[in-house]
């Protein structure tokens, strides 16, 4: 159906029109590059604003436009919205310093980036647009739900997947399982008739199949080069209270980005029942409070920490500190062994940061061939995977011995 921003007539493509017809609260445009996802955001938002104005809710209304980084918001999202709304009855004033767009309807649009989620707190939005959510960390999802929850406001997500991370676990899977709160609209780059078919076919010939499917078809695939490719939702179990007498191990990866993982062990099976992850600088006593609030069972835990961060750990004054066996490659082998033997279980919904990071923790790969190019993993999405390695390799790993060198 034709739509418009004021007098600008627009004929949407089928997957764009589907966002207007959807009755779901969380609407996802998951499609290939160049199909017209980000470009559609201001139009969907304009239709929502028009509806609220007609209902008498225009004055004081707040809306959110969220991108992965400040640069992407500044360079992409702001210009697209300003271009769409220019010379229409939604043309307003954009305040660059505050990243706020004043609507002539009396409402405001807040442009924010997911790398600073604290700037979203405190608002109750009537609608939100989220571009490239797969590039955002798992911690943004609870914030988005909270900031739209009071008004039960709709959210439009646009972008293609980059991994089977929180976007897959928390939005795609519930939709796949029939939850009508979510609506997933899948399409390829060539569903936009303006996208060059020869470019689509060139990418299909030259890219690894998993990468092509994600970038050009909007399909979730496990990327090549994952450190733990055997990790996945099949490891999840329903949450339960940790029984008395089960040992508790807390893996600590302190620093500016602070991570802690909580495992309970019973009959050589490890149950991950909670995690803690923050990128906000906090004093040691705040980390300690967060950790103690997550402890279960009646046996004092062992805190297994990265020995290279001894000073940070000492400041926390925790009892039962154990230096981790911090070998990287040997530790990966130990964790992989436990996963393959079915001895690692994740309590469903209790470890969102662990699930998110394990599905993205990877080795460097050649972008064309998909072949691993270096032996050590990329230092990204590594904090909670490091915590699980500290625990399991310290408890079960074979200590590395220095090679014996024969001197003649």
What does this structure look like?
The chain is α/β, with parallel strands linked by helices. It folds into two domains: 3-217, P-loop containing nucleotide triphosphate hydrolases (Rossmann fold); 233-396, Nucleotidyltransferase, domain 5 (2-Layer Sandwich). It has helices at 14-21, 41-54, 70-85, 140-149, 166-176, 197-206, 209-217, 284-293, 310-314, 328-340, 352-358, 383-396, and strands spanning 3-5, 8-10, 26-31, 62-67, 93-95, 100-102, 108-113, 127-131, 155-159, 182-187, 236-237, 248-253, 258-266, 269-278, 302-305, 321-323, 344-347. The strands form three sheets. It has an eight-stranded mixed sheet, sandwiched between helices. A seven-stranded mixed sheet has the order 11-17-14-13-12-15-16. It has a two-stranded antiparallel sheet with strand order 1-2. The longest helix is centred in the N-terminal third of the chain and has 16 residues, at 70-85. The radius of gyration is 24 Å and the shape is globular. The termini are far apart.
């Amino acid at each position: 159906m034709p739509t418009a921003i004021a007098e600008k007539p627009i004929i949407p493509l089928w997957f764009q029109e589907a966002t207007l017809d959807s009755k779901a609260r969380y609407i996802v445009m998951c499609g290939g590059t160049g199909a017209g996802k980000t470009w559609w955001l201001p139009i969907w938002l304009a239709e929502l604003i028009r509806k609220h104005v007609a209902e008498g809710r225009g004055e004081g209304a707040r809306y959110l436009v969220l991108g992965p980084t400040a640069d992407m918001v500044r360079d992409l999202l702001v210009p697209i919205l300003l271009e769409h709304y220019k010379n229409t009855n939604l043309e307003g004033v954009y305040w660059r310093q505050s990243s706020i767009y004043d609507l002539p309807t009396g409402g405001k649009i807040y442009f924010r980036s997911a790398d600073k989620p604290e700037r979203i707190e405190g608002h109750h939005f009537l609608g939100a647009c989220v571009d490239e959510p797969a590039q955002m960390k798992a911690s943004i999802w609870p914030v988005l739900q909270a900031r739209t929850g009071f008004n039960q406001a709709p959210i439009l997500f646009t972008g293609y997947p980059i991994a089977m991370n929180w976007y897959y676990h928390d939005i795609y899977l519930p939709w796949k399982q029939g939850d009508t709160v979510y609506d997933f609209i899948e399409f390829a780059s060539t569903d936009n008739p303006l996208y060059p078919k020869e470019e689509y076919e060139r990418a299909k010939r030259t890219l690894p199949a998993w990468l092509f499917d994600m970038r050009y078809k909007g399909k979730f695939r496990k990327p090549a080069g994952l450190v733990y490719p055997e990790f996945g939702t099949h490891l999840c179990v329903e949450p339960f209270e940790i029984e008395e007498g089960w040992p508790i191990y807390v893996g600590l990866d302190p620093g500016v980005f602070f991570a802690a993982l909580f495992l309970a062990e019973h009959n050589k099976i490890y149950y991950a029942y909670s995690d803690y992850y923050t990128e906000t600088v906090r004093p040691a006593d705040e980390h300690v409070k967060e950790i103690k609030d997550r402890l279960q069972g009646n046996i004092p835990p062992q805190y297994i920490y990265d020995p290279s961060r001894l000073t940070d750990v000492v400041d926390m004054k925790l009892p039962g500190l154990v230096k981790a066996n911090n070998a990287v490659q040997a530790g990966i082998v130990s964790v992989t062994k436990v996963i393959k033997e079915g001895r690692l279980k994740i309590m469903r919904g209790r470890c969102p940061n662990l699930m998110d990071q394990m599905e993205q923790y990877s080795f460097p790969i050649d972008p064309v061939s998909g072949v691993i190019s270096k032996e050590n993993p990329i230092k990204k999405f590594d904090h909670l995977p490091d915590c699980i390695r500290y625990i399991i390799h310290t408890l079960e790993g074979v200590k590395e011995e220095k090679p014996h060198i024969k001197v003649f």
